[in-house]
Design brief:
Layout (H helix, E strand, L loop, with lengths): L1 H26 L2 H23 L7 H18 L18 H4 L1 H21 L3 H22 L4
Helix pairs in contact: 2-3, 3-5, 5-6
């Protein structure tokens, strides 16, 4: 029993150290940070997308989770496109971001604003179907203008 506890404690310490090292690397890598934020939007957005298509029943909590991910990404992303992150890290960010930074930043601010508004507006399935597509259009506009293909 004592051996099992020791092994579990060592595994837990190893996991914490590995996770901490990964977090430190990501903190110093704006490309990794913005990819993680966009991945969170994609992951949390799958359920609402299925709801819009009628493939999944409406779930307000899932919609709110997706909106909170968009809100966080809109807020945090403003700092994640410094001049030294134009290339590398398998980025798909287009050079147009840095050529038209004011428009790009405005689109990020709109993402945050739309998500914040959605959190208060979307209270049921009807308000979700009325509001969520407009929020997604904002995402699409930014991706169309500033995101390259893989």
């Amino acid at each position: 029993m004592k051996k099992i506890r020791t092994i579990l404690a060592l595994c837990a310490i190893g996991f914490v150290l590995a996770f901490s090292a990964g977090a430190v690397v990501a903190q110093n890598d704006p490309i990794a940070q913005r990819k993680a934020l966009m991945k969170a939007i994609g992951d949390t957005g799958r359920a609402p997308a299925a709801m819009l298509k009628g493939e999944q029943p409406f779930d307000l909590a899932a919609v709110q989770t997706a909106l909170k991910a968009m809100q966080a990404a809109g807020k945090a992303s403003l700092a994640l496109y410094p001049d030294n992150s134009k290339s590398g890290g398998d980025t798909v960010a287009l050079p147009k971001i840095w050529e038209n930074k004011a428009d790009f930043n405005a689109k990020l601010a709109k993402l945050e604003s739309d998500a914040t508004s959605g959190l208060s507006k979307i209270t049921d399935e009807a308000s979700f179907k009325a509001s969520y597509p407009d929020i997604l259009r904002g995402c699409g506009d930014c991706h169309r203008d500033y995101r390259g293909r893989r």
